[in-house]
Amino acid sequence: MAIPEEVLTPFERVRAYQARVQQDQMPGLASYQSRLDALRQQYIENKAQEEADKLLSQYTSLFDTGPPGALAGSISAQTKAPSSKPPVGAVQRFVADYAARKYGWTGSEWDALRELIQRESGWNPYARNPRSTAFGLFQFLKATARNYGIPWGTTNYKLQTDAGLRYIRDRYGTPSKALAFWLRNRWY
């Protein structure tokens, strides 16, 4: 319902006139504007999705050691019998770098962590304890692996490292305290 022009102020009359002229010159302006709004929203959603995909890709690439195209962290991709295990030096370098970057564990804390992993698995991410459900570098039990969000039995040493360091931090605070407990009890 249009407002009669005699009720409008001079300024409002000018604006109404401009709107009519613009509408006459550009038929379908309203549909054009709504289409533009829809495209703008679609662009924003696509950019947000691209950014989310990019971040997810960066996160999963940290943990993906499976074959190309395998889903990082998937049990089928991570628990197959290995064709060859990674060299101990590469695993140690990754663990040392990750522990230093994420928790600042260097020097004596790194020494304690190195000894703890050596005692638990000999730096073998495929290590299995035949008397329990323990597996991997940190010898996670099935329940502990589930609590720390990694698939039971994964051979992905990067996933094992992330979860293992969180476990040590949560339960003991530092690798030296975890090693001290291990030396007293022969488990941690």
How is the topology of this model organized?
Blueprint: H1 10-25, H2 29-63, H3 75-78, H4 88-103, H5 108-121, H6 142-147, H7 157-171, H8 175-185
Describe this structure in words.
The structure is a single chain. With 188 residues, this protein is mainly α. The chain has a domain at 87-185: Lysozyme, CATH 1.10.530. Helix content is 62%, strand content 0%. The chain is built from 8 helices and no strands. It has helices at 10-25, 29-63, 75-78, 88-103, 108-121, 142-147, 157-171, 175-185. The longest helix is centred in the N-terminal third of the chain and has 35 residues, at 29-63.
Strand proportion, as a percent range, falls in under 5%
What's the level 1 CATH class of the domain at 87-185? Mainly Alpha
Encode the helix/strand succession as letters.
HHHHHHHH
Total DSSP E strands: 0
Mean pLDDT: 79
Low-confidence stretches: 64-83
Give the C-alpha Rg.
Answer: 30 Å
